[in-house]
Amino acid sequence: MPAAVFSRRVGNLVKDAGRRTETGWFTPHMEAASRAILDRIPLVDCVIEVRDAR
Predict the structure, then answer these.
(1) Could you tell me which of 38, 46, 42 has the C-alpha nearest to residue 20?
(2) What confidence tier does 1 reach under pLDDT thresholds 50, 70, 90?
(3) What is the rounded distance in angstroms from the CA atom of residue 47 to the CA atom of residue 54?
């Protein structure tokens, strides 16, 4: 399977999973940012997630 097809499938799976979660506790700007990220996942080659555990 070519890398582009694989990354497109992974991006679509991530978008679908993100849209199924409950976001009731998010403030509106956090929800908007999460949706914007999910919409752009298929357009990128690599995702690096940085977490802050304060």
Answers:
(1) 38
(2) low
(3) 22
What's the whole-number mean pLDDT along residues 34-53? 84
DSSP per-residue letters across 10-46: HHHHHHHHHHHS--TTS-HHHHHHHHHHHHHGGG-S-
Q: Report the predicted TM-score, pTM, of the whole model to 2 decimal places.
A: 0.43
CA distances from 7 to 18, 19, 31 (A): 16, 18, 24
Tokens of 24: 């009731």
Distances (CA, A) of 43 to 12, 53, 54: 11, 28, 31
Rounded mean pLDDT of 6-32?
A: 74
Instruction: Report the amino acid identity of residue 30.
Output: M
DSSP state for residue 48 in the 8-state scheme = -
